Amino acid sequence: ATAGAEPGVDERGLIDLSALPFVTIDYETSWDLDQALFIRETDSGYEVFYALADAAHFVRPGEPLFDEAMERGTSYYLPGLVLPMLPEVLSEGVTSLLPREFRRALVFRMELDSEGVSRGTELLRAKIRSRAKLTYRGVQHMLDFPAESAIRGQEYHRSLELLARVGTLRMQLADRRDVVRYDRVGLRLRLSEDGHRIVASPEVRTAVQLYNEQISLLCNTEGAK
Q1: pTM above 0.70?
Q2: Which residues have CB under 8 Å from 182's CB, separation 6+?
Q3: Cβ contact 190:29 at 8 Å
Q4: Where do runs of H (alpha helix) occur along 81-206?
């Protein structure tokens, strides 16, 4: 509880990026929001901001919380149950990039040219404020039927359109490099109505999930550099 009491956003040295309209995109039931994005056009291409929740500020090596997190390794999602890697007071609290809350983040600021090729990356310890908790299905609906979407006209509307453009460019670059693409189908698990069986139903990923995946992969390669 002590670790989750203070978000730590007033620390000297954090760059204030709270004026940028970041948003999170995840599943409807997710509250452990660990990434947010904002994309804008530049004279030569695009500027991509990808914010990762700064859990390292709260979980330090040598502390019991760190040891327990390393023991678990990841969060486990079961039908009707989540076993989080970090306590919920952190994972769904001060480290979660919740809408309208100031949060610490490690931000990848990436400059791309007009074809989506990286021209430089900067890592920033920053303070951000997500504008909205969006869902994959909601953003996909906005892209497919913009006139029907409540997202239309919001300050982050253009950023989401650019997510589709940059994501497509990055997939085209991967195709040119003969990157193997796996057409994965997820499984959503739920309890049957009588509570005695686990029911698995296929879940085809939306295009928005593929676009977001490309930005995440870009962060991985730029971080490796």
Answers
A1: yes
A2: none
A3: no
A4: 88-89, 136-144, 157-176
